[in-house]
């Protein structure tokens, strides 16, 4: 399995970039998690990475903030009829974009080997994706807290620990990063994690730290 970072706040050479978050996951199934602010950025960066945004099995949205859903109209246009697993809301728009509405109301298995935490605090979900031997947790902005999201994903999937937690940690303070580090082998702070959180993980947990920027490809 691999995770391709289509856009992150940190730019990558040769890629377009803005404030947003989107990853393409290629494993048992092929799907996009969050869609940045602009379809053009996703399209350009996927071409540079040599992957197609067509032929996706489904799409997942962590929460209804523009830096995560802005590129979804393009994803729907390229993949008509696939489900969009998103927290409740905007059903009419989701259909207009070309998706089948996959409203996520509680924790559970979305597709084979892909679990959701369900919307925590009523509005943001994280997912767990099974690799052949481990579980990878992907988060959006972690407004409800990355620790709680990770615990919810571990609980629903039956895993005791994550292999990797990747995504936006929303300016997580040191104490919370310490608690998160106990839940996972590797940590990839991205998007809205903040430079302080990245520097802290890099310094305190160098054996766990995974650097992420636009265009990163993480092989698992
Ligand atoms: Fe965000």
What does this structure look like?
- The protein is globular, with a radius of gyration of 16 Å.
- The N and C termini lie close together (5 Å).
- It has a 7-stranded mixed β-sheet.
- The longest helix is centred in the C-terminal third of the chain and has 12 residues, at 146-157.
- It is α/β, with parallel strands linked by helices.
- The protein has 7 helices and 13 strands.
- A hairpin with a 3-residue loop joins β2 (22-26) and β3 (30-33).
- It has one domain (2-219): Ribonuclease Z/Hydroxyacylglutathione hydrolase-like (Metallo-beta-lactamase, Chain A, 4-Layer Sandwich).
- The structure holds fe (ii) ion (FE2).
- Residues 21, 65, 67-68, 141, 168, 191-192 line the site of fe (ii) ion.
Relevant terms:
single chain, 220 residues, alpha/beta, Metallo-beta-lactamase, Chain A, seven-stranded mixed beta sheet, six-stranded mixed beta sheet, 13 strands, globular, binds fe (ii) ion, Metallo-beta-lactamase_dom, hydrolase, RibonucZ/Hydroxyglut_hydro, transferase activity
